[in-house]
């Protein structure tokens, strides 16, 4: 009960921030159930009285920024979940900037010593002030062994604050599912669980170091792309030391032109590098905005900040490649079949109907020039259409779609005439040839033979397990399935607790709203 009160207090503070920024204006209460609809209408009315008159397209971003690091991360994550929040809110949250004031230099030095076991002055010849600060960590420029280095340090206490706020997010998601069962289709609890996993990985800088190492191995032979080298001897869970990147920010077109770089080549390089990582490797940088991309003196694209990564399994990669190839070739029937083969669209729907829906997306593109066709927008429309055919939410595809939109924007900023389809065709075509052509068939056959061999070796153990399970089922069939008295009593206590806490939470929520209204009124 006391935890519920604490969660409601934090949610009340969040509600007040949303009210002050006028963010409830973005939510249409028409289709909401009674209590949430009433709360939204009350928030909209109150916002008109006490609002800050923030521009309409940045109200949620402003509110989440005021609420602190955990909410900034939640906002950035929800910006990738258009299926949950809708296009307008996703656009608003996509403007959320992850910038916070830096913590003190002395605090950073203490954190380095605590993480690495030696004072900063013993580890580095030079250790400068912070050059960038975000919600989870900040970066210092340092020097050691004659090399310039970037030292990323977690904010003190940030992990405890995130754990506290994540529990509040779980409370809100679970309460929402109880109040409105229809929201379970959007899987709010699963959404928070995905966010929690992502944050836990970001909180361990060894995971980011490992991601950089994996990307480096995957791209060792790739033309025009590289990542910073990890200094493993000066890295730990809360400190990450990397090669310092001296390059031109990819957003600075004037500086790139002045340095003699070919902007059209760079635009194509950004797109093809991302598609190569996603399709070939199934492991891609999922935060490839302009602030994380540089061009070095040799004209290489250098990516930094690998805290958010995306993974695609073999099935998802085939799905992506065949969909893109199908739209490139205008083969809507095959594109529809891919959805059914992958199990994304339930079998009770007709392939022909789904192909017709895909044609409705693809054909309007025929009369447009290549520079007017957005691959990111195409994937967005595709995911919208699949909802009509009961396709379940696929978080990995949503992260891919969000990154595609960002990467496409980066590429077109460099080359406004960029032909996304012509640029993507060599990478997608090569993947199709390698994996779905004769070469792919040989590789699949070899993999199948290896799998059969492993199954034969495991057969005796599987047979013994099956015999034990069969014996157990036979015993249950003859004597029944029994729960001991302690188990029955524990189940009853838990059900009673959930019922009481649900009623208490609803009453406290109502009283909190009333208290806020009275405080504002007086």
Automatic annotation (TrEMBL):
One of its GO terms (molecular function) is kinase activity. InterPro entries: ABC1_dom, Kinase-like_dom_sf, UbiB, UbiB_bact, UbiB_kinase. Pfam families: ABC1. Residues 95-339 form the ABC1 atypical kinase-like domain. Keywords: ATP-binding, Cell inner membrane, Cell membrane, Kinase, Membrane, Nucleotide-binding, Transferase, Transmembrane, Transmembrane helix, Ubiquinone biosynthesis. This is 2-polyprenylphenol 6-hydroxylase. Pathway: Cofactor biosynthesis; ubiquinone biosynthesis [regulation]. Belongs to the protein kinase superfamily. ADCK protein kinase family. The chain crosses the membrane at residues 504-521. GO terms for biological process: ubiquinone biosynthetic process.
């Amino acid at each position: 009960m006391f935890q519920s009160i604490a969660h409601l207090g934090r949610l009340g503070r969040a509600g007040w921030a949303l009210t002050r920024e006028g963010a409830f204006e973005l939510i249409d209460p028409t289709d909401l159930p009674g209590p949430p609809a009433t709360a939204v209408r009350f928030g909209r009315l109150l916002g008109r009285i006490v609002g800050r008159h923030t521009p309409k397209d940045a109200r949620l971003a402003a509110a989440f920024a005021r609420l602190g690091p955990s909410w900034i991360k939640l906002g950035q994550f929800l910006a990738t979940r258009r299926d949950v929040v809708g296009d307008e809110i996703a656009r608003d949250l996509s403007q959320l900037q992850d910038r916070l004031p830096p913590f003190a230099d002395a605090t950073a030095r203490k954190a380095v010593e605590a993480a690495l076991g030696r004072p900063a002055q013993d580890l580095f010849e030079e250790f400068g002030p912070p050059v960038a600060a975000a919600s989870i960590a900040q970066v210092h420029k340092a020097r050691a062994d004659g090399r310039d280095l970037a030292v990323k340090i977690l904010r003190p206490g940030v992990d405890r604050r995130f754990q506290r706020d994540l529990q509040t997010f779980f409370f809100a998601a679970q309460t929402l599912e109880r109040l409105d069962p229809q929201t379970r289709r959007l899987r709010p609890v699963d959404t928070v669980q995905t966010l929690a996993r992502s944050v836990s990985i970001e909180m361990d800088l060894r995971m980011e170091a490992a991601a950089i190492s994996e990307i480096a191995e995957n791209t060792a032979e790739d033309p025009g792309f590289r990542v910073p080298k990890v200094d493993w001897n000066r890295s730990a869970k809360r400190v990450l030391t990397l090669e310092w990147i001296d390059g031109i920010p990819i957003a600075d077109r004037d500086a790139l032109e002045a340095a003699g770089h070919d902007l059209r080549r760079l635009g194509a390089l950004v797109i093809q590098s991302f598609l190569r990582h996603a399709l070939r490797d199934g492991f891609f940088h999922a935060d490839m905005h302009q602030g994380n991309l540089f061009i070095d003196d040799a004209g290489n694209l250098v990516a930094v900040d690998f805290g958010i990564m995306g993974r695609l399994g073999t099935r998802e990669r085939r799905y992506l490649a065949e969909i893109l190839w199908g739209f490139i070739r205008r083969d809507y029937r095959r594109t529809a079949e891919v959805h059914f083969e992958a199990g994304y669209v339930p079998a009770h729907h007709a392939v022909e109907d789904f192909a017709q829906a895909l044609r409705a997306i693809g054909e309007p593109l025929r009369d447009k020039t290549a520079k007017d066709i957005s691959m990111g927008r195409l994937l967005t429309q595709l995911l919208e259409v699949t909802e009509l055919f009961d396709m379940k939410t696929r978080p990995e595809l949503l992260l891919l779609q969000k990154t595609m939109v960002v990467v496409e924007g980066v590429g077109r900023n460099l080359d406004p005439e960029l032909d996304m389809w012509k640029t993507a065709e060599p990478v997608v075509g090569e993947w199709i040839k390698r994996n779905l052509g004769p070469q792919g068939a040989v590789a699949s056959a070899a993999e199948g033979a290896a799998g059969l061999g492993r199954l034969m070796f495991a057969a005796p153990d599987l047979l013994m397990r099956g015999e034990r399970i069969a014996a157990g089922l036979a015993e249950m069939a003859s004597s029944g399935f029994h729960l001991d008295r302690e188990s029955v009593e524990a189940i009853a206590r838990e059900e009673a607790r959930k019922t009481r806490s649900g009623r208490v939470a609803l009453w406290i929520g109502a009283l909190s709203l009333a208290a806020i209204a009275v405080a504002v009124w007086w």
